[in-house]
Structure formats: structure tokens, C-alpha cells
Design a protein that fits this description.
Layout lengths: L3 E4 L7 E2 L13 E2 L2 H9 L4 E4 L23 H10 L6 E5 L12 E2 L9 E2 L3 E3 L14 E9 L13 E5 L7 E4 L5 E4 L9 E2 L10 E3 L7 H9 L4 E5 L3 E6 L4 E2 L10 E2 L2 H11 L3 E4 L7 H14 L2 E5 L10 H7 L3 E5 L3 E2 L5 E5 L2 E6 L3 H19 L9 E6 L3 E3 L4 E8 L4 E4 L8 H6 L2 E5 L3 E3 L4 E6 L3
Parallel strand pairs: 9-10, 16-19, 16-20, 17-18, 20-24, 22-27, 25-28
Antiparallel strand pairs: 1-4, 2-3, 5-15, 6-14, 7-13, 8-10, 9-12, 11-12, 21-23, 23-24, 25-31, 26-30, 27-28, 27-29, 29-31
Helix pairs in contact: 2-7, 4-7, 5-6
The chain binds adenosine monophosphate (AMP) and magnesium ion.
Length: 461
């Protein structure tokens, strides 16, 4: 059941929902009684979201219900975002600009690879049958027809009894007879086709090199070049406006007055957007007023396919993103996802344009981006695979989630798959986020002992 904002004076039995990542002093989903009303008044909240009664409050056994009815599950949130994405139109691009882009159509190989039978090494082209009896003490003599260097093709035929030198030749394995025409003495037998690479053994002409929806890695770019392609069709890149809200924010490079912090979300998110194939466009820091937020959203929505904002999506008096978005005609599709960090995530639509409203805390912003926005950006470009790369690992120490939401914990994973906490798991702790190379999805109220085999999502992709 969805919560709805209620005036306190309207309620005598209702549940309070935790509205943000901040500590409110009240548990989410806690049923209110009159004592608590007084407390709520003291902390200055006038409105909150309530839901229908579910269970009685007992002070002997204070409830910590698992219910997260006002939030949606991460998978559901992802699906709802992916469902509204219409693929961006394709455009041709040169191969040297293709890395990170998504193939818009299948690419078939126009040639065999290798394109012709060729030698894997320098030496001599011979008929293996000629050398069947060759021994060091009884070498076989073959007439030398000529030589070919890399890039040349031998026009003749290596007839029985003859050989051709493939530059530079393996002179240490043969002896040259001082004869005219020249002869080469072979002291060792060879197998038929030994050291040869056969035409098409790697890639057959007509084979599918990339499917539509495959993302171009450096190696795939190399493969396309190897079959002679110079350009291909990929989806257009989404242009994403990047907005950070908050009166406390100061641009890096300036002096830091008391009470202020450096704005760091745009730096991290611009890099993550680029890595996801999007084109980020950073806007100036937005002060916490409805007018400034509305004006900046309006401008950015006019210029971009979608927006990523940070901060201002909780229920504080200075959280204006949702309000401002609705004021300019945007529709909030959902708000709050049952995960930690990143809960106050908001997803909205304004015509064909999308709003991804991330929480302000830097770890919440990055984790919500990776789990909810990155898949959307990749799918928008037509990518088939949109999840973070992941593999299994085993815990080198226990991991505990005492909360009632899934906790995406920062971990380090070593090359043997040993997983450890990356340090402080708080939503402001960029130090441990930067030290981490993995994220682990720990279910609510769960203790995983050392040795547990777990799935690790990679952060160093
Ligand atoms: P908010 O979600 O707007 O309530 O922000 C929560 C907290 O995140 C703020 O108090 C700041 O400490 C931090 N924060 C918000 N925006 C940024 C940002 N752009 N860069 C760094 N920290 C931020
Ligand atoms: Mg804020």
C-alpha cells in the first residue's frame, strides 16, 4: 500500500515512513501513538506519509517490520525505468570513435580471417612429404625457388622437391648448399600444415562478429578493423544534464567557508556517465530554492535527453527537486527504492525526457546511479547487457546487515576472490567507496559468516 502525506492532526493510527537517508529519529514503518505525535511535533515535522494500520505498537516489543510498502524493490524500479525507454536512433560513426558505443545492427564479416593460408612464422615453405625421411645425419636437399617477405604473395607453386624462403627464414635450422640453383638442406621432418594458419580458421566470411546490442570493447574494435571495416552504425548517445543541488556546495578549487563542502557528485557522475556511453553536460550548482530548481530543470530539460540530479529528493524543507519537476509539468513515476544507500531515488518523465533524481550523499548517488541509471543509459543505446559485471567471491570476514533494507556494501575483492569490507559503510564515506572495487547486495537482517560464497558486482569495470 502506498503511503500518502497526512497532516498530523488527521491521524491517530498510522505508520511513519522514513523519508530519506537522513536520521529522523523515528523508525520507518513505525506506528504512531500520541506520545510520538508529540515527539514529531518537537522535531518539527508537520506532514509525513502514513499507511493503513498493520499491527499494534507494543513498547515491550517495539516493532521493526520488514514491510517497505511505500518503496519499491530495486528490480521493479529497474523494470519500470527500462519499460519507458524508446531506443535512440542510430547514427554512423568511424571505427576509431566506436569504443563504448552499442552496435545498432548485426555486423557480419565481409571476409575470411585469416584472409588466406599463411605461415605462422618465418622459415621455409616445403611439401611435408619431401621431408618425411629428413634426419640431422641424413638431410634432405630441396631446390630454393625464391623468397617472399611479409606483404608479398608467391606467384608460383612449391612443387615437390622445391622450397621457398619466408623471410627472414630460420637459418639456424637448415644448411645452405653452395649450388646453382641454390639448395637448402633440411635435417628434420615436419607435419603437413605445421606452422600454417588456414584461411577462415579464426572467422568465416559471413559470420556474425557483433549482434545488435553488443557494446564495442577495444578488442571488438580491433576485430572490426581486421575484417576491413572503417565505420559502423551505433545508437546515438543520450545527452544527460548533470545538476547538483545544495546551498552547502562549493566548487572545487575555491576556498571552503565554514559549513560548506566541496561539490563532488558532478565529477564522479560525469565520469560514470561517460563510461556508460552518455554525453554529460554539467550545469552550475543549484541553490536550494524552488525558483532556482525549477529554472535550472526547465533549462536542462530543454537541452538534454535526460537529467541526473543530486540532492533535494528527500522531504526536508529545502528539498525541491520533486516539487520543481512537477511544477514544470513533469510526472513522478516513482520515488524511493528499498535499498541502502540510495533510497530516496526519484524517477520522472517530462514528455520524452527523463529525470533520474539521485540522493545527495555521494555514496548514495553513485550506488543509485550504478544500479538504476547506468542500466537505463545502456538500454537507451540499445545494449542487451546492462548490469554491472559480476562474479562470485568468498567472504574473508563476516558481513552484517542489521537494517531492514538490502544494503549494497562496498567491498574489496582480491585476485583470489577473497572479499572484505572496504571500510566505513556510511552514505557520505567516499574514502571507502574509492577504496572499493566491488559492491555486494546483503539482504535485510542478515549475517554472512566468513567463507560465504557471494556475488560481487565490479566497480572497476
Ligand atoms: P540531500 O540529499 O540534498 O539532503 O543531501 C544529503 C547530503 O549529501 C548533504 O548534506 C551533503 O552533505 C551531501 N551532498 C549533497 N550534494 C552533494 C554534492 N553534490 N557533493 C557532495 N556532497 C553532497
Ligand atoms: Mg540538499
Amino acid at each position: 500500500m502506498r503511503g500518502q502525506a497526512k497532516d498530523l492532526s488527521d491521524c491517530n493510527t498510522c505508520f511513519i515512513y522514513d523519508e530519506g537517508e537522513r536520521e529522523s529519529g523515528l523508525e520507518a514503518n513505525l506506528r504512531l501513538n500520541s506520545l510520538m505525535f508529540a515527539y514529531v511535533r518537537v522535531i518539527g515535522e508537520k506532514m509525513f506519509e502514513g499507511a493503513a494500520p498493520r499491527h499494534q505498537l507494543s513498547f515491550d516489543n517495539p516493532p521493526r517490520p520488514a514491510d517497505t510498502r511505500a518503496m519499491i524493490e530495486l528490480e521493479q524500479a529497474c523494470q519500470r525505468i527500462l519499460a519507458v525507454l524508446a531506443p535512440l536512433p542510430p547514427e554512423p560513426i568511424p571505427l576509431d570513435a566506436a569504443v563504448g558505443r552499442v552496435a545498432a545492427e548485426p555486423i557480419l564479416s565481409p571476409i575470411d580471417l585469416p584472409p588466406f593460408d599463411n605461415s605462422a612464422m618465418d622459415g621455409y615453405a616445403v611439401n611435408a612429404a619431401d621431408l618425411r625421411s629428413a634426419r640431422a645425419e641424413a638431410p634432405v636437399k630441396l631446390e630454393l625457388l625464391g623468397q617472399v617477405a611479409a606483404g608479398q604473395a608467391f606467384a608460383g607453386k612449391v612443387r615437390p622437391g622445391t622450397c621457398v624462403r619466408l623471410l627472414t627464414g630460420l637459418q639456424e635450422d637448415v644448411r645452405l648448399g653452395a649450388t646453382d640453383p641454390p639448395q637448402v638442406l633440411f635435417g628434420e621432418a615436419v607435419k603437413p600444415w605445421e606452422n600454417t594458419r588456414l584461411r577462415g580458421e579464426d572467422v568465416k566470411r559471413g559470420a556474425e562478429l557483433l549482434a545488435a546490442g553488443d557494446r564495442l570493447t577495444a578488442m571488438r574494435v580491433g576485430l572490426l578493423a581486421a575484417v576491413g571495416l572503417k565505420a559502423l552504425k551505433v545508437a546515438r548517445q543520450p545527452r544527460i544534464g548533470l545538476l547538483a543541488t545544495g546551498n552547502e556546495l562549493v566548487e572545487p578549487g575555491q576556498s571552503l567557508p565554514a559549513g560548506k563542502i566541496y561539490e563532488s557528485n558532478r565529477a564522479a557522475l560525469a565520469a560514470l556517465l561517460t563510461a556508460a556511453g552518455a554525453l554529460p553536460r554539467a550545469y552550475p550548482v543549484v541553490p536550494d530554492t524552488l525558483a532556482a530548481t525549477t529554472a535550472m530543470l526547465e533549462q536542462a530539460l530543454a537541452e538534454c535527453d535526460g537529467l541526473v540530479t543530486t540532492g533535494g529528493v528527500s522531504v526536508g524543507e529545502l528539498d525541491f527537486v520533486k516539487n520543481a519537476f512537477e511544477q514544470i509539468g513533469g510526472e513522478i513515476q516513482f520515488w524511493r527504492v528499498a535499498m541502502k544507500p540510495g533510497k530516496p531515488f526519484v524517477f520522472g518523465r517530462w514528455r520524452q525526457r527523463l529525470l533520474f533524481g539521485l540522493p545527495g550523499n555521494p555514496v548514495s548517488a553513485v550506488v543509485a546511479f550504478l544500479l538504476l541509471v547506468r542500466p537505463a543509459l545502456l538500454r537507451w543505446q540499445g545494449a542487451t547487457r546492462v548490469d554491472l559485471p559480476a562474479h562470485s567471491g568468498h567472504l574473508a570476514e563476516s558481513l552484517v546487515n542489521r537494517g531492514d533494507r538490502r544494503h549494497f556494501m562496498r567491498v574489496t575483492v582480491d585476485p583470489s576472490g577473497n572479499v572484505r569490507s572496504a571500510g566505513l559503510q556510511a552514505s557520505h564515506s567516499l574514502g571507502s567507496l574509492a577504496a572499493a572495487n566491488g559492491l555486494v547486495d546483503v539482504p535485510p537482517r542478515t549475517t554472512w559468516p566468513a567463507g560465504t560464497v557471494i556475488r560481487v558486482m565490479r566497480l572497476d569495470f
